[in-house]
Design goal:
178 residues; alpha+beta; Thrombin, subunit H; 2 domains; four-stranded antiparallel β-sheet; 8 strands; 42% helix; 21% strand
Length: 178
């Protein structure tokens, strides 16, 4: 019985990976309402009101209404989201001096991103699979072993998991550096 359930679980999990076309693509709204997207090629920044576009984002972080960007061509950019202005810098020294001069270096924590910064997207895509497969298997296992009550340690683990999920949701909602 356990082997059959494991086989079914494996086949369903393999099926999800085989048909996961487009899961790497994303389009997220920045803290000031612009958009960073990966439509299947290069990651790009789209400014909403001016329709400006910056392609080739390698990594970036959000700070004080700005986006600090490192591009794939070894250049750098700063996007002022409120004024819809993109400044490009050819060297890291010019980029760093601009950030220093304008107070755009986070003091506590710099959250660099290189892809989809909303980590719970992946979790919620797989949530139906987890609910449909894991919970029934857990109940069947508990019934088969004759232990229907849950251990206090298991309850604590579930509590910690729920707190971790809440922390992930908060960090996704506020992607800025501090």
């Amino acid at each position: 019985m356990i082997r059959l359930l494991a086989l079914i679980f494996f086949l369903l999990a393999l099926g999800n990976y085989c048909f996961a076309n487009g899961l790497g693509d994303f389009a997220n709204t920045t803290p000031e309402g612009n958009q960073i997207a990966d439509p299947g090629g290069e990651i790009l920044l789209l400014l909403k009101s001016t329709n400006k576009e910056l392609q080739g984002l390698k990594k970036w972080y959000f700070y004080k209404g700005n986006i600090m960007i490192e591009l794939h061509d070894s250049s750098y950019a700063v996007c002022n989201e409120k004024e819809q202005v993109i400044l490009r810098f050819e060297t890291v020294d010019k980029f760093n001096s601009f950030r220093q001069k304008n107070g755009l270096r986070p003091n506590i924590w710099t959250r660099w991103y290189s892809g989809n910064w909303i980590t719970t997207d992946f979790l919620f895509q797989w949530m139906p699979f987890l609910i449909l497969m894991f919970i029934p298997m857990l109940i069947i296992w508990r019934l088969a072993t004759g232990r229907l009550e849950f251990n206090p340690i298991v309850k604590r683990i579930f509590g910690v998991a729920l707190l971790a999920l809440l922390l992930l949701l908060i960090l996704d909602y506020y992607p800025q550096s501090f």
